[in-house]
Amino acid sequence: MSKPSHPRRLADTDAEAIVRNLRVSPRKLNLVAGLIRNLPAQQAVARLTFSHRRIATAVRKALESAIANAENNHQLDVDRLVVTQADVGRAAVMRRFHARGRGRAARVEKWFSHIRIVVSERSETAASPAEDDAGAARGVG
Questions:
Q1: Model pTM?
Q2: Averaged over 34-55, what is the pLDDT?
Q3: What DSSP character marks residue 129?
Q4: Where in the chain are the domains?
């Protein structure tokens, strides 16, 4: 007697990776997650590799894990993967106290975050949204 298996929440062309309790605030993590949304997977890895933000390395590892899950668990084509979702959520908050003058104390909050990255296999004929936005910004199309 074991628990019944849950049905898969994602489509057959999707794969995900979840990292919990990253030691960064959700606001800062969402800035890094915004860099990779709707990008092809290899371009997103390159963008995170050269990002100067400290948490970008952890997000890159999560993205590479999602790519590996797509390849090994779901037999998806790595060259056609696109980052469709990069969701950031709040986790626990450590509360500490910082001594101030005249016997007072100030509260210091150390935020933790979760990130969920979903990659999808797209057809080669469909143009990526990032390319459409770049063309619209230049006045092309």
A1: 0.83
A2: 98
A3: H
A4: 14-136
